[in-house]
Design brief:
- The chain is mainly alpha-helical.
- It contains five helices and no strands.
- The protein starts with 5 loop residues before the first helix and ends in an 11-residue tail after the last helix.
Length: 151
């Protein structure tokens, strides 16, 4: 006969809940999603900083051009992380849809920037930064809720 203390039982319940939640939230890829959305948000912020200098100097323009390639790459990384967290990780499909939207907005942003349509390029950049910041907050502050199996 095995007797357990209340602390041991609570520890076992918590561990079971954590593994069930991890499986539902994308498991081992959840951290990859957090890092990739953080990198995407940081790269969009870098673009906002270099946008002002792009108007006044050639160096700023070069930095903004290089940053656009980095931002596009970070959007692709976020999409990869979201798909991995969704399909093999067992997480929700919604982050993959968000990441796809960011990649589409990034593509539109590149086309508008290359064609110098600043009347749409600048507000779209602001919108992208706001949406990326909201998504980063959603991912970083996500509460873990126990699944029905663990309850």
């Amino acid at each position: 006969m095995v007797t357990r203390t209340t602390a041991e039982t609570a520890s076992m319940t918590t561990a079971g809940t954590a593994s069930a939640v991890a499986g539902r939230r994308g498991g081992r890829f959840a951290g990859f999603v957090r890092v990739s959305i953080g990198l995407q948000t940081a790269s969009i912020f870098f673009q906002a900083v270099t946008a002002g200098t792009a108007l006044t100097s050639q160096v700023g323009s070069t930095m903004h051009d290089l940053g656009s390639k980095g931002t596009y790459a970070m959007s692709m990384l976020y999409l990869l992380a979201a798909v991995l967290a969704w399909r093999p990780g067992g997480g929700a499909a919604r982050p993959a849809l968000y990441a796809t939207g960011f990649l589409l907005l990034g593509t539109l942003q590149v086309v508008l920037g290359v064609n110098h349509v600043m009347g749409v390029h600048v507000p779209l950049g602001v919108l992208m930064f706001g949406l990326s910041l909201l998504d980063l907050g959603r991912v970083a502050l996500q509460r873990t809720r126990p699944t029905a199996e663990a309850a």
